[in-house]
């Protein structure tokens, strides 16, 4: 093989193919890979691009209960054809606040069991023994406690001047220093330096702690969804968990999109004792 052929072969091995997907165990590794391929993050967005105008994105790969188990990088080369995927924010924060589809589906099925008429409702209430849904009410309390613990460190992690912002700023600072010196290290080496910062290490520790609370919460939600509600209080407990912990529909009416707002209004109209 000629020298030129050898170089071309090496480049082909190292460069992603059109629309090739690569998977990594951490977000830092995924971002480092894109940086090593000449991509940069577009300001105020979740999209990556390069000098050739190619598009790229980092996507979470979900595990059980919606927890992130890996990170997927997709590069869409110019002229590759096909639409570019819609990228979600490259942050582990995403899975903590979004809806778990299985739980949402279970809530709809539970609401479908609500008696259709006043007579049926009265009949069902007379059959249900006092405290029939005590287990659901207990689960609601535990789920809300786990949800609050899951988000207890959000301000420190993702607030203004939070640890997530510090992590990115530290990476950019190192890159700027290298540009001034005209000497560069690899993206992986740069991330290794960033994660030597005690505050950045604390970010990972807090995220892991949040994941643990989320896992516990998700397990309790699945347990709750497996118990049929026999009373209005039980149905209200399920809807409260759905709106707060699963769908995260807690914003004021004026701050919500129309579809989630209509769904929330319907759910709160179907049951009593649910706060909007």
Task: Describe the structure using short key phrases.
276 residues; alpha+beta; 2 domains; five-stranded antiparallel β-sheet; 5 strands; disordered N terminus
Topology:
Elements: H1 3-14, E1 21-24, H2 27-36, E2 40-41, E3 48-49, E4 55-62, E5 68-76, H3 94-97, H4 101-112, H5 118-127, H6 134-150, H7 154-158, H8 163-181, H9 187-194, H10 198-225, H11 232-246, H12 258-270
Antiparallel strand pairs: 1-5, 2-3, 3-4, 4-5
Helix pairs in contact: 4-11, 6-10, 6-11, 8-9, 8-10
Give a quick rundown of the structure.
With 276 residues, the chain is of the alpha+beta class. It has twelve helices and five strands. Helix 4 (101-112) packs antiparallel against helix 11 (232-246), helix 6 runs antiparallel to helix 10 (198-225) and helix 8 runs antiparallel to helix 10.
Question: Could you describe the 3D structure shown?
Answer:
By secondary structure, this protein is an alpha+beta fold. It folds into 2 domains: about 5-90, no CATH class; about 95-155 and about 200-270, no CATH class. Helix content is about 55%, strand content about 10%. Helix 6 packs antiparallel against helix 10 and helix 6 packs parallel to helix 11.
| Fraction of helical residues | 55-70%
Tally of strands? 5
- Quote the average pLDDT: 76
Would you identify the regions where 5 or more consecutive residues have pLDDT less than 50? 1-18, 80-126
Please tell me what the overall shape is.
Answer: elongated
Biggest sheet features: 5 strands, antiparallel
Q: What is the domain tally?
A: 2
Radius of gyration: 24 Å
Strand content: 5-15%
Order of helices and strands: HEHEEEEHHHHHHHHHH
Distance from first to last alpha carbon: 70 Å
Which class best fits the helix and strand makeup? alpha+beta
Number of helices: 12
Strand order of the largest sheet: 1-5-4-3-2
């Amino acid at each position: 093989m000629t020298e030129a052929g050898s170089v071309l072969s090496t480049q082909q091995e190292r460069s992603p193919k059109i629309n090739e997907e690569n998977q990594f165990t951490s977000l830092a590794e995924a971002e480092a890979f894109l940086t090593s391929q000449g991509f940069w993050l577009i300001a105020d967005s979740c999209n990556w691009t390069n000098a050739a105008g190619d598009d790229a994105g980092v996507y979470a790969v979900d595990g059980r209960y919606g927890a992130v188990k890996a990170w997927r990088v997709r590069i869409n080369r110019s002229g590759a054809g096909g639409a570019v995927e819609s990228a979600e924010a490259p942050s582990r924060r995403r899975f903590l606040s979004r809806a778990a589809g299985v739980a949402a589906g279970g809530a709809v099925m539970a609401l479908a069991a609500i008696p259709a008429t006043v007579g049926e409702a009265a009949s069902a209430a007379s059959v249900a023994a006092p405290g029939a849904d005590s287990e659901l009410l207990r689960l609601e309390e535990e789920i809300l406690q786990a949800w609050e613990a899951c988000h207890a460190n959000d301000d420190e992690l993702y607030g203004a001047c939070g640890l997530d912002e510090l992590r990115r700023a530290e990476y950019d600072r190192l890159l700027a220093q290298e540009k001034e010196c005209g000497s560069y290290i690899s993206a992986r080496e740069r991330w290794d330096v960033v994660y030597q910062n005690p505050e950045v290490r604390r970010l990972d520790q807090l995220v892991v702690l949040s994941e643990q609370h989320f896992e516990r919460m998700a397990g309790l939600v699945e347990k709750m969804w497996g118990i049929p509600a026999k009373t209005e209080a039980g149905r209200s407990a399920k809807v409260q968990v759905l709106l707060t912990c699963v769908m995260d529909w807690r914003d004021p009416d004026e701050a919500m999109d129309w579809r989630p707002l209509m769904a929330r209004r319907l759910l709160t109209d179907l049951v009593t004792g649910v706060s909007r």
